[in-house]
Amino acid sequence: MEIPISGFMHHSDDSDPIHSHHLYITSWDGKPVHVHEFKGVTSFDVGHYHRYAGTTEPAPSGVQHTHRYFTFTSVDDRHKHQIRGVTGPAIFLPGGGHYHEFSGYTTVDGSTPHRHRYSGETSR
What we know:
Blueprint: E1 5-11, E2 21-28, E3 31-34, E4 37-41, E5 51-55, E6 59-60, E7 68-72, E8 82-86, E9 91-92, E10 98-99, E11 101-105, E12 117-121
Antiparallel strand pairs: 1-2, 2-3, 3-6, 4-5, 7-8, 9-10, 11-12
Protein name: YmaF family protein
InterPro entries: YmaF
């Protein structure tokens, strides 16, 4: 099964010793794509919490969908955690637009190994 995807690639200016390109997908199967921002604060465990923020992966607009997400937390108590998962389905708003709920647990890290809970809603 082939799904037509369109977009563009941004080329870095080569001043960075690590050469990179960024691929921006603008449509998936003929439908425009979009992303959401997400942010929050983890649960308070082992005497601290962490802040996190990121942007979801693109998903098609105008149809029921979810988004994958990934980010790192802030460094607190000399360590950080990974956050990753898949949002819930789109929750459509009466005036247009939508948002997604997300929740989960961070990776286990720290000098006293532990994890944190997190949850929230994406931008609308």
